[in-house]
Structure formats: C-alpha cells, structure tokens
Amino acid sequence: MYPILIVDDDESIRNFLLALFEAESYTVFTAINGEQAWKLFTENTPMIVILDQRLPDIKGIDLLKRMKEYDPDANIIIITGYGEIKDAVRAMEFGAVNYLLKPLDAQELRIIVKQIQQNLSIKKERDLYWDKLQVLCRGKLTPLVYKSKKMEEILNQVKEVAKTNSTVLLEGESGTGKGLFALYIHQISNRSGGPFIDIDCTTIPENLLESELFGYEPGAFTDAKKRKEGLIELAHKGTLFLDEISSMPMLLQGKLLKVIENRAFRKLGGKKEIVVDVRIMVATNTNLEEMVNNGTFRKDLFFRINTFPIKLPPLRERKEDITPLAEHFLKEIVKEYHKEIEGITPEAFEILKDYDWPGNVRELRNTIEKAIIVARGKFIKPEDINLRMGEPIKMEEKLSLNFKEAMENLEMDLVKRALAQTQGNQTQAAEILGVSRNFLIRLMKKHKINPFEFKV
C-alpha cells in the first residue's frame, strides 16, 4: 500500500491518525510543522498527505501548493478546525482531493484514503500497461508472415496508407489478422510513439460502450462518482482501433462520425468539447454496404470510414502462406513451451494444405499449438494434427413432453447453433435468429452460454 504523511501540530490528532492507519498496515510518517513535512515529503514521496490547514510555520494551503508543484500526482487531504467555505474552495482549486473538518470522522477518512489507494493502484496498472505497450509499439515490429502475391499487394497498400492519417477500414473473415494489421500500420506510422488502443465492440454491452469510448464527468449517471477518461481521449496522439464496428449501436455511430469529422467530442455529462489528435482504424467481418442498405449502419459513417478499405483474404484463398505461417507458429510456440520439436513432416504439411481453414490464421495457430502439446517425437506427424470440426449441436432425439421445458431446450439449442455458425459473433448470430443483439445477450445470460466458447 502507498505510504501516508500526516501533518498536524496537534499531538492527539497525529497519534489518533497514526494508530488508525497503522492498524490497517499502512506505512505512516508524521510531522508537526511545514519544515518537517517538506523534508519527509521530498525524501519519501508519499502519495497521500493528510495536511492541517493551520501549522506553526506555514499555512496548509501554501504547503499544499508547494507539494503539488513538486509532485502533481500527490493526493492531499486538507483538515482544519477553522472551517470556512472559502478555504475549502481554495484548497480544491489548488489540487486538494478532499477537505474535512475537525473533529474528524474516522470512518469517513478511512473510506476516502481507501478510495485514493484504489485509484492509485488502477493508475499504476494502467501505467504498466502503457509501458508494456510502448515497448511493443517502439520495439520489434509485429511479424507479418506471408509468401503469396495477394498478401504482398496488401502489404504494399498498408505501407502507403501508414504514411497518412487516413481512416482505414480492414475487412475480412474472423481470424484473418485484422487486429494484427491495424497494429502494424500503427507501428510503421508517424504515430508509433503514441498509444495504440484497441476495443472489440462485440465484447462490451451497448449501455457501457458509450462511457468506455467517451468517458464521463461526475454525476453523468447514478454510479458516476468521479471523472473517467474514455478510450478516445486515451488514444490522443496515437491510434484508436475499433474491431467489429458493425456491432456499434446507431446512436454511437453518429457520435463517432462527429469525432472523425471534427476531432473533438464531449464526455457523458460534460459541456466542454475535448479536442483530440487521434487516428481511427476500424475492422469488420460483416458486409457494411449490406447493413447500410438494410438501415442498420449509417451511410454517412460508412463513407467516412471507407476512405481506404483493405480486404484481407481468407487463408483458403492463399494456401501458399500456410507453410511459412505454420513454421513461424511452430518456432514461436516451441520456444514458449520449451519443447524440442524441430519441424513438421511433409505428410503433416499436406494435411494442413488440404484443409479449408474456416477459422483462418487463428485456427491454424491453434492447430499448431495443439499439435506441439501432443507431439512425442522431434517432428509433428499427421496423427498429431486434429482438424475435426466441432461436432454439430444435435437436437435431443426425444424432446421432453413438458411444453415449457421443451421450449427452453429448443431456445438454448437455437442460440448455440447461431453462435457456432458465426464463430461467436453476437451481431451476426442475432441477425440469423431474427432478434436484436440485446435480446440475444439476455438469452445467453438466461441459459449461461458463453459466446467466447464458439470462437475458433
């Protein structure tokens, strides 16, 4: 847990707070005046400071300003027995996270400090994520393995569009590598030093997608207790990749269009427009033109994101890439699993080449991984490769004569069939069933069906 610095000239207050937080295993420093507090603050950099407004040698607000100048991330709580509204306003203006009056409420203070600790932990995790992401984006390029003429032509397109800030639409079946190409475009662009934020629109419920993308201000809705940065804002100076954009609700499509056109947006509950410098890339495995004709996707947004479309071919249309891809995955996974496998036999390669790969490159990688796990020799043999498609979901030969029970089973079976056919794509499954995506989600919850189990 992050250390706490307590600054108060009243010994009883210091002892009370020291006992309160040491009992909860916090590391606590105490100071009786501004001079001691500054020394402890600069030597130990505590992230939480509980600071009395009246000190013998300095005003609490003046010390607050000095601390915030030294470390803007410091979380400072002002306490005082001389509570005036103007003092509270001034303290908050200069960066205090809260302002409490004496006598202190131990439970209230405990809750405030706990919330600050949680926020600091979240920020630390996010910073670690960004550090890892920057290594990925600035370091070794994402490997694009291919041999076919088709992929060579696509790579030439990718290199050209990467030099621009144009919106890119990546089209292709599930598993063709749309996310990989989006990251590669980012890595070779002039935005490679900035963040790469990706979000799969199918994995976030419609009612949460808006707040995830745009963020919100305190009070925007019932549970909005504090300001939240959205993914658009976090992608500033970098790239925002929206996977499966076909799943985005119509209302959000309109808001996204404004971001693309104006490079500005408002948070939920916000009045101020936030200007962002962000490149947007999107991907889909659905025919967006058909959706436009059906009225389920905005025509104006389609024209905006269709500035530079790149269609990734399925693996069955570029079978010459199977061998180099399999060899690449073998080398990568063998290293990860510490297995002594030298290669794939010609007979095993023939099996791989004869298969149509409905799950594309993702399915090929999974197949190689499974083969490495079960292989017993130095080479992967035909018997190590299992390409049997999942058994079709069968209706019960004897349906229950109980009408309600039979209908429940039929309902569950239909949902599973649709998800299996679309490899877990909820939007497409809902279209097949002739229901809304929200209704499908309710059915999946009702029958405890996990759509990710149907991903190839």
Question: What would your notes on this structure say?
Answer:
- The chain has 456 residues and is of the alpha/beta class.
- It folds into four domains: 114 residues, 3-Layer(aba) Sandwich (Rossmann fold), CATH 3.40.50; 172 residues, P-loop containing nucleotide triphosphate hydrolases (Rossmann fold); 70 residues, Orthogonal Bundle (Helicase, Ruva Protein, domain 3), CATH 1.10.8.60; 52 residues.
- 47% of the residues lie in helices and 13% in strands.
- β4, α4 and β5 form a beta-alpha-beta unit.
- α16 crosses α17.
- The longest helix is centred in the N-terminal third of the chain and has 33 residues.
Structural class: alpha/beta
Please tally the β strands and state the result.
16
CATH overall fold name of the largest domain: Rossmann fold
Overall 3D form: elongated
Count of alpha and pi helical runs: 18
Q: Per CATH, which architecture of the largest domain?
A: 3-Layer(aba) Sandwich
* Unreliable segments of 5+ consecutive residues: 128-139, 389-399
- Major beta sheet summary: 5 strands, parallel
- Would you tell me the overall average pLDDT? 84
CATH H-level homologous superfamily name of the largest domain? P-loop containing nucleotide triphosphate hydrolases
**Fraction in helix:** 40-55%
Strand order of the largest sheet: 2-1-3-4-5
Over the alpha carbons, how many angstroms does the gyration radius reach? Answer: 28 Å
What's the end-to-end separation, in Å? 41 Å
Number of domains: 4
CATH top level of the largest domain is: Alpha Beta
As a percent range, the share of strand residues is: 5-15%
